[in-house]
Amino acid sequence: MAPAHRVVDTEAGLAAVIEALRPEPVYALDTEFHRERTYYPKLALLQLAWPGELVLVDPLAVDVAPFAEVLDGPGVAVLHAADQDLEILELACGTVPSQLFDTQVAAGFVGMSTPSLASVYERLLGVRVAKGDRLTDWLQRPLTAHQLEYAANDVAHLLEVHARLVSQLEQRQRLQWAAAECELQRRRSRGPRDPDEAWRRIKEARQLKGRARAVVRSVAAWRERRAASLDIPVRYVLSDMAVVGIAQRPPRSRADLERVRGFDRGLRDDVVDDLLTAVKAGVEGPVPSSDESSNGGLDRDLRPAVGLISSWVSQLARDIELDTSLLATRNDLEALLRGDADARLATGWRAEIVGEPIRRLLHGEAAVAFAGDGELVIEERSHRPLR
Known about the structure:
This protein folds into three domains: about 5-185, Ribonuclease H-like superfamily/Ribonuclease H (Nucleotidyltransferase, domain 5), CATH 3.30.420; about 195-285, Orthogonal Bundle (DNA polymerase, domain 1), CATH 1.10.150.80; about 300-380, Orthogonal Bundle (DNA polymerase, domain 1). Helices cover about 45% and strands about 10% of the residues. The chain has helices spanning about 10-20, 70, 85-95, 105-110, 115-125, 145-155, 160-170, 175-185, 210-230, 235, 240-250, 255, 270-285, 305-320, 325, 330-340, 350-360, and strands spanning about 5-10, 25-35, 40-50, 55, 75-80, 100, 365-370, 375-380. The protein has a six-stranded mixed beta sheet with strand order 1-4-3-2-5-6. A two-stranded antiparallel ribbon has the order 7-8. It is flat and about 70 Å long.
């Protein structure tokens, strides 16, 4: 059965929603958006639910910027897998919720591994929802009844999920863990991407060395800036294949460029001139120093420990019913072993559960042992070697 909902497509309607949400301590929120044809994501629908109400706000008909008042207010915004939604809200409203509860993050603290919204609904509430319109065109108007039903389902049960998760987290004494993780997510930088780092998102570019790396960094940065200025995807400016080809054999003229595989011969002369200027800057500029190796600069003597400790962390996560990625990633382990000042495993609850046992292991105070059935444990070291 489709959840009851109403569409808000006027300034007066949005103002009434904002007024109704002012006193609400908790509200559910989701967005539908597209970014396939633009550099910046384009908001297509804003879904909101609070006790007794579910509304779908049409941002193509009404400016949603005034909704910032609700986001900045004291209410807790409940979202699922909120990262991209937060980016959209920051662009559309200029802010993000003052308090965030991400149900995907919270579910990880009760043993669910990066679950989809549908799986959270089914596992916690026994509710099954159809997901057939996930890849639909949300920018079309009018939206179909099926699209509106899909969008409404995304928030229809979020407040029930929130209540259920809060109860389970309190029982496990992990509510503060989840709250802290949600706060880190809320405060994470989602500003414009750094053009000088754009080359790192091109897989083949990361293998380049020396002068080729300097050129690929310069050309990728040029492509990123142009895409942002035109609000189009970077691939519409220049393909990844062309960026790498240019770096491998830097062109000096349009004729040289047209011999590069993947180059768009329809580019205007002024755009080509700008691109050649970027190539020249890479050729003549300083050669970037090589990045640290893939092990993150970890001391050679400690590298063998990473795999063993990773296996122990995975086992521990299963034992305590906590998503492994929330407990400790491989990067977290390497940061701790390197002694990074901002290592996640050096402070808070992670330090107690993971960081301290690893510290004792590295100092020879503990040892990793098989506990049977393939399980690993870190236990007190006997200092009695087998002979």
